[in-house]
Amino acid sequence: MGPVTAGVLQLLALVGALALVHIPLGSCMARVYSSKRHLRVEKWIYRGTGVDPDTEMTWTAYLRGVLAFSAAGVLFLYLLQRLQGVLPGSLHFASVGPAQSFNTAVSFVTNTNWQSYYGEQTMGHVVQTAGLAVQNFVSAAVGMAVAIALVRGFAFSPARFGSRGGTAVRTGELGNFWSDLVRGTVRILLPLAAVAAVVLVARGALQNFSGIHGVGQFTGGSQQFNGGAVASQEAIKELGTNGGGYFNANSAHPFENPTPFTNLLEIFLILVIPFSLTRTFGVMVGSVRQGYTVLATMATIWLGFVALMMWTEFAHHGPALQAAGAAMEGKEVRFGVGGSSIFAVSTTLTSTGAVDSFHSSFTGLGGGITLLGMMLGEIAPGGVGSGLYGMLVMAVIAVFIAGLMVGRTPEYLGKKIGAREMKLAAAYLLVTPALVLVFTAASMALPTPGHSVLNPGAHGFSEVLYAFTSASNNNGSAFAGLNANTDWYNTTTGLAMLLGRFLPMVFVLALAGSLAVQRPVPVSAGTLRTEKPLFTGLLVGAVLIITGLTYFPALALGPLAEGLA
Amino acid sequence: MNNSMTHTARLLGAGLRALLVLTLVTGVLYPLAVTGVAQALFPGRANGSEIRADGRVVGSSLIGQRYDLPPEKGQQGPRPDPKWFQGRPANGLGVNSINTRYTLLLSGATNLAADNTVLVRQVEDAKAAVIKDNSVPGYRVRASEVPADAVTSSGSGLDPDISPQYARIQVHRVAAENGLPVTRVAKLVADHTEGRTLGFMGEPRVNVLELNIALKALVDQH
């Protein structure tokens, strides 16, 4: 069997596994977020927190919860790094400097996990497990909560509350943020991560709390190894589409990703919740076929990107790769070109940013595919939660475009898409391109930021474009030649991550609030049938044309110039 | 104004308390529980897959290392020991070349672009060296036989494996250096070649440390 066939079979195995799991997991998640009961452990958590998990929240109250919890997260993680030098269990690592602490705190709270530090030389056990890994859980749970709130905006209508035993009719409520946060963490992420972590250890991932120690070598002398709770962090790093590696080499490091099987498992973990959430969406809006349309859109783009990536990586254009005979620079022997290509596409079409091979050394076009994946807004299937709400915003826009064509007021899932909804959707779409292009332009125009670039020519520009694309879309992967540990990059990527995460959330929750107060309009002959394959086609087109074209000039200067040279 | 500030403070307090409680669950209980299970069920794997030979630890089966001659005074960089099978180049951040203590391990790639002349030079130099080092009287390595993994750095810089093809072109050199029959060394490589998992996952590979341990046992027998 050749490597291409093996690559395709690995892809098919993933598709099969996801097809099997997404229905039960998606339905299970719908029950988790719809249930009225609280588990005992959840009641303890609510008591310790002092919040009422049963109050229905309007979109503004929900948003305040998101922002307060995230602000607390940034503050806590910042202080933890600043105090590392005096904390026990820190492997004698010094406290992290202010700019890097800010960058890292923002990075993990926003589900980005951009890293301007070397994991094995900077962060001790306490910061890794009680700081970074915690945000891997809760930032993912926040993303899922916001997505569920948007789904409720479509599913709920004022009548729902009117029918409640004679109480006053209240409108526009989206559920309870604290309850969604805790349930996502306790009922979905924790059990799945625990199982995955043990499987990873069984194949060779580290899981201990030993310090830095010497290990003998074959020809004498010794190597230095880090201990650490690696597997437990690796599992949630992929499952929560976080991506921040325990080690600098991320999932290319054999202690994080020891075998070809764990490589596929980690890709599966990255994709499983974002794809399954389309089922959750279908169940919650009362039509699983609506979920299938969204799923088909995501799957079409993901499969198309994987096919393109495999084609360009196996073809290995570029002088150095042609001299070597294959695109193996920055790739591990055990994964090969096929496994690395699937991982690279999956990590950049979600908000993960973990890497099992280094994108900077991919072919010019291969690097461009990872960039374009992030630029599409990471919606195929996207980050946990953020992928679903990003795709639903695109669906609103696609419905609007179709409405313009036939001259009718557009509606989606029974809710009218009026001027207010379109303003919010358009604002959502404009945030990340504005951040990416403005910060990239500023970095190229100012004298010093250019010094961080490693490679000459078009690729050097791509390194900067990649950094801000990755930060603004909360991905976290890098063309890692760029030296990002400077005050300029720590500050600007930090701002890009903050604004790229929370501004879109504001617009999504506002959209959810404005949908939730609407009574559904009945389906008529003029309604666009959004559960049909035609709508998938429309949606794929809208995604590629609207976001793809925004970035075309920037892509032409970087990866296209390199790939077509 | 005052009212909204107390409201904000109360909300931030709730956020902080929620974070602390969830930190206890996901940042303390979860890693400890996973560590407990891991240490009970898979202690060897959880602690770094260390391999012992001749009664001492000689490394981890998952982490690549270098097989160099003992350093001499005034020597520029390490020199590979031709007696042993050699792993992939490590030109990036990845440090698998430590024969001295107290250098903290760092992992990472070169991140050089496919059109960077520095990388082109590295690949061409590595190819020339692989051909020169592995050609022995009666056996000459052809450029077309050198696989890509022999001339490129890995993602981690700690790749424990090489492709079967890279192991095969080293067989003649290793056999000559150790005074072993070529067929015997070739069989050793074949025995240590691991195919794709379940026939389709990943790529076929040879673990260099395990191969060298077996080679040493063979040398000691003779």
Automatic annotation (TrEMBL), chain A:
GO terms for cellular component: plasma membrane. Pfam families: KdpA (PF03814). The chain crosses the membrane at residues 61-80, 188-206, 264-285, 292-311, 386-406, 427-446, 495-517, 538-561. It is found in: Cell membrane. It is a multi-pass membrane protein. The keyword Disulfide bond does not apply. Its main location: membrane. Keywords: Cell membrane, Ion transport, Membrane, Potassium, Potassium transport, Transmembrane, Transmembrane helix, Transport. The keyword Ion transport applies. Coiled coil: none annotated. Part of the high-affinity ATP-driven potassium transport (or Kdp) system, which catalyzes the hydrolysis of ATP coupled with the electrogenic transport of potassium into the cytoplasm. This subunit binds the extracellular potassium ions and delivers the ions to the membrane domain of KdpB through an intramembrane tunnel. NCBIfam families: kdpA (TIGR00680). The system is composed of three essential subunits: KdpA, KdpB and KdpC. Belongs to the KdpA family. This is Potassium-transporting ATPase potassium-binding subunit. It comes from Streptomyces longwoodensis.
TrEMBL record, chain B:
Residues 66-88 are annotated as: Disordered. Keywords: ATP-binding, Cell membrane, Ion transport, Membrane, Nucleotide-binding, Potassium, Potassium transport, Transmembrane, Transmembrane helix, Transport. It is found in: Cell membrane. Its main location: membrane. GO terms for molecular function: ATP binding; P-type potassium transmembrane transporter activity. NCBIfam families: kdpC, PRK00315.1, PRK13994.1. The system is composed of three essential subunits: KdpA, KdpB and KdpC. This is Potassium-transporting ATPase KdpC subunit. It comes from Streptomyces longwoodensis.
